[in-house]
From TrEMBL:
Pathway(s) the chain acts in: Lipid metabolism; peroxisomal fatty acid beta-oxidation
Main location: other
Molecular-function GO term, any one: FAD binding
Binding residues annotated for FAD, in chain numbering: 153, 192
Pfam families found in the cross-reference section: ACOX, ACOX_C_alpha1, Acyl-CoA_ox_N
Domain Acyl-CoA oxidase C-terminal residues, every copy: 485-666
Keywords: FAD, Fatty acid metabolism, Flavoprotein, Lipid metabolism, Oxidoreductase, Peroxisome
Gene Ontology BP term (one): lipid homeostasis
Every Acyl-CoA oxidase C-alpha1 domain range: 289-450
Organism name: Trichoplusia ni
Name listed for the protein in its UniProt record: Acyl-coenzyme A oxidase
Active site: 435 (proton acceptor)
Gene Ontology cellular component terms for the protein in this record: peroxisome
Length: 669
């Protein structure tokens, strides 16, 4: 982890005074010392290849050059994965280990044109292809003989999947489907790698057979010649243009002009079209949820990595940076000594832990529910779906706000691309939109919560993550208790109160003559907030419970810090939601005052361990890729080194001086 160069004295002092063993925490976060060892070994293997090293920083390249560099790096990375698969005789794990987590992003800082192959193309084949189809496609995809992507969104529709316009019409005479984009708005728009990278694609299209539409289905479509890479006849494909971030991902558009594909290219694990055109319906439309939920859980894990990266950069910088002079005769303090700065950073650290533990929890639930699905048991599917929706929405939104707060915490230098905070923000804020737009996801969870509340009120027993609604429906406002468990109960009361109010408001609006849909829409701001409150209950309680379980055999020093972080996170959110707590619980002015003191006291207690806590994320300099966040804290030297890489600094006078500036100044332009 550490670079061999001299470490900034302030940063070293922070490390010296850390009260717990940093390696112990690293091991805890990785899931054991062996896992830390394995991660470090993998990072060493991958980074040793030097794929991440850039001759000219990619921000100074043109759009086209950026893409070409991203393809080069992605290919070298895939080549490495292939080698690791052979050497270690592994499968999908090598993809996940090298591309997932923070390692992939360290090599392709602005996104990879080949990621969709691994995050969407292969998982969709695994989830929706029959055994025979898998035998044919997965081998080819796995060996990277073909590169795929996933095209669902169209120019005209993203959220409303039923509104997609691309058609796939079955022709029994040739046993083919004919793919067509009837309008401009039917063009696929957004898929990563679609523009110039992938040669195959899973296309979601409206399936027509025997004159009847059966809704959206997945088709494997060849887009480009495997040899020349030229688009096949009838395929109109290109790039959608420059974006706020993720400019290496090669997002594309795609239109079809009566393109024919074999019948077998419909992924038929769930629904089928027989040779004569007979449509055989899926036993449950819910079976296709699997891939979607897998991706959402992966997103939550990604958010932990981005937050860990941003808080590491901003915290180390805050230990090095000195600013202002609050006491006239004393030197300028480290900015980390300002309570407002601790407020910006320490909650970020606890957020990374909270999300990681929530992600572990839902990952286990996902695996259990998937195993149950294989045996035809779908009981916990709606609960998992509701939880994965709100968790994706809340974690991505919060990650975006943590990263932005970290950027602001670094003042002007945080605005530099060299800090790596802007690119990190670009990644995180994109996740608020892709794989289900956040508001839409919160409203999906709200639908589940409204039903759950009605069941709770009717006395029906509820699944574990909404069981608190039954307790709330049965009891009156409990007495306020200003402890951690009291706060957790307070959040349950708050969430239940919000959900109950939404149900009451919808009913009231219906009684006043509105349709259910209009009553829902009029209540939707409250519904989205209720959904967020429910998610908060889940995150806070799983963070608390999982930490208790996790630190059972930890040293007393580490245990103390871990609980301080949990307390900080819970008290922080209580203070953020004071208005709601006043409205829905019996919290008093005095309780709030105590919470505020408690929060400030926690910040002060955690302050000496701030650097130790971010060091424990164990992010190598190559992964942080930041002049402000490097292990040695040589912030100013690195900023200057990076500035000197600007192509403008290659010559003392730019030609535009002679061409424009001088003639302009002399009135001759
Ligand atoms: C970086 C990036 C990568 C992407 N990659 C892919 C990809 O690989 N493949 C792919 O197929 N797609 C991809 N997408 C597309 C993405 O999935 C969609 O953008 C997303 O689903 C949102 O749909 P939309 O853009 O149509 O937004 P819209 O649905 O038009 O949303 C616009 C606004 O309307 C609101 N809204 C919409 N419906 C409702 C409702 N029912 N109730 C209340 N409010 C509503 C939303 O909350 C939002 O505020 C990507 C997008 C991004 C940004």
């Amino acid at each position: 982890m550490s670079s061999k160069t001299k470490v900034n004295a302030d940063l070293q002092r922070e490390r010296d005074k850390c009260s717990f063993n940093i390696t112990e925490l690293t091991n805890l976060l990785d899931g054991g010392a062996a896992m830390t060892e394995e991660r470090r070994r993998r990072e060493e293997t991958v980074l040793k290849e030097g794929i991440h090293i850039e001759e000219v920083p990619s921000e100074y390249l043109s759009h086209k050059e950026k893409y070409e560099l991203a393809v080069k790096k992605a290919c070298l990375l895939f080549k490495l994965i292939r080698r690791l698969q052979e050497e270690e005789n592994t499968g999908m794990e090598s993809f996940r280990a090298v591309l997932g987590g923070s390692l992939g992003a360290a090599i392709l800082q602005d996104g990879s044109p080949l990621t969709l192959h691994y995050v969407m193309f292969i998982p969709t084949l695994m989830g929706q292809a029959t055994v025979e189809q898998q035998a044919y496609w997965i081998g080819r995809a796995f060996n990277l003989d073909i590169i795929g992507t996933y095209a669902q969104t169209e120019l005209g529709h993203g959220t409303f999947i039923r509104g997609l316009e691309t058609t796939a019409t079955y022709d029994p005479s040739t046993k083919e489907f004919v793919l067509h984009s009837p309008t401009l708005t039917a063009y696929k728009w957004w898929p990563g790698g679609l523009a110039h990278s992938a040669n195959y694609c899973i296309v979601m299209a409206q399936l027509y057979t025997n004159g009847q539409c059966h809704g959206i289905h997945p088709f494997v479509v060849q887009l480009r010649d495997e040899e020349t890479h030229m688009p096949l006849p009838g395929i109109k494909v290109g790039e959608i243009g420059a974006k706020l971030g993720m400019n290496g991902t090669n997002n594309g558009f795609l239109g079809f002009e009566h393109v024919r594909i074999p019948r077998e290219h419909l992924l038929m694990k769930n629904s089928q079209v027989l040779e004569d055109g007979t449509y055989v319906k899926s036993p449950s439309s819910k079976l296709t949820y699997g891939t979607m939920m897998f991706v959402r859980v992966v997103i939550v894990k990604d958010m932990c990595n981005y937050i860990a990266k941003a808080v590491t950069i901003a915290t180390r910088y805050s230990a090095v940076r000195r600013q202002s002079q609050p006491k006239p005769d004393e030197p300028e303090p480290q900015i980390l000594d300002y309570l407002t700065q601790q407020h910006k950073l320490l909650v970020g650290i606890s957020t990374a832990h909270a999300f990681q533990l929530s992600a572990e929890w839902i990952w286990n639930m996902y695996n259990n529910v998937t195993a149950e699905l294989e045996t035809g048991d779908m009981e916990r599917l709606p609960e998992l779906h509701a939880l994965s929706c709100c968790l994706k929405a809340v974690t991505t939104a919060e990650a975006a706000s943590v990263v932005e707060r970290c950027r602001l915490a670094c003042g002007g230098h945080g605005y530099m691309l060299a800090s790596n905070l802007p690119l990190t923000y670009g990644h995180v804020t994109a996740a608020c939109t892709y794989e289900g737009e956040n508001t839409v996801l919160l409203l999906q969870t709200a639908r589940y919560l409204v039903k759950a509340w009605q069941q709770a009120a009717a006395g029906t027993s509820l699944p574990p993550t909404v069981r608190y609604l039954s307790r709330a429906a049965a009891a009156r406002k409990p007495r306020w208790d200003n402890s951690v468990s009291g706060l957790l109960h307070g959040f349950e009361t708050l969430a239940a109160g919000k959900i109950a109010l939404c149900v009451a408001n919808i009913e009231k609006r219906q009684k006043s003559g509105l349709s259910y849909e209009d009553a829902w829409n009029m209540t939707s701001v409250q519904l989205a907030e209720a959904s967020e409150a429910h998610c908060r209950v889940f995150i806070l309680s799983s963070y608390y419970e999982e930490t208790e379980r996790l630190v059972k055999s930890s040293s007393p020093e580490l245990r103390e810090v871990m609980f301080q972080l949990v307390d900080l996170y819970i008290v922080y959110w209580a203070l953020q939601r004071i208005g709601d707590l006043l409205r829905f619980t019996s919290i008093s002015e005095r309780d709030i005052e105590k919470l505020q003191y408690w929060y400030e006291d926690l910040l002060t207690k955690l302050r000496p361990n701030a650097v130790g806590l971010v060091d424990a994320f164990d992010l190598r300099d190559e992964i942080l890729h930041s002049a402000l966040g490097a292990y040695d804290g040589r912030v100013y030297e690195r900023l200057m080194e990076e500035a000197l890489k600007s192509p403008l600094n290659a010559e003392p006078v730019n030609q535009s001086f002679h061409k424009y500036l001088k003639p302009f100044m002399q009135g001759k332009l």
